[in-house]
User: Which sequence fits this backbone?
């Protein structure tokens, strides 16, 4: 069992990713509005640093979305990762986002869907 986290800077892809998650067996996810540290510093009261950050970041997206979900089946996890890669392309490019998974030992409060194994 794993938790998949996606920090999505290209928020216009959110609905398509969520729709495809359902298609591959992801039964639920939580979406949180977020802001990266660079964006927060750019908007802060440090004019020299803020100006430097604005020059360094060509992608002017002050906010992003964090999607996370707990997935029991490794095949579903692999399919969900493939969904994200298909929608976002090369995640090593600046400004696209960040995705990672972590093992989950226990879950409390999870109501499994009827069709879950």
Assistant:
């Amino acid at each position: 069992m794993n938790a998949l986290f996606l920090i999505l800077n290209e928020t216009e892809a959110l609905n398509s990713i969520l729709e495809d998650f359902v298609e591959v067996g992801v039964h639920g996810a939580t979406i949180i509005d977020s802001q990266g540290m660079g964006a927060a510093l750019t908007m802060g009261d440090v004019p020299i640093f803020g100006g430097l950050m604005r020059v360094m970041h060509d992608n002017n997206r002050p906010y992003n979305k964090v999607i996370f979900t707990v997935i029991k089946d490794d095949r579903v996890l692999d399919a969900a990762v493939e969904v994200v890669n298909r929608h976002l392309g090369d995640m090593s490019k600046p400004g696209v986002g960040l995705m990672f998974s972590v093992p989950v030992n226990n879950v409390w409060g999870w109501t499994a869907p009827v069709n879950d194994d």
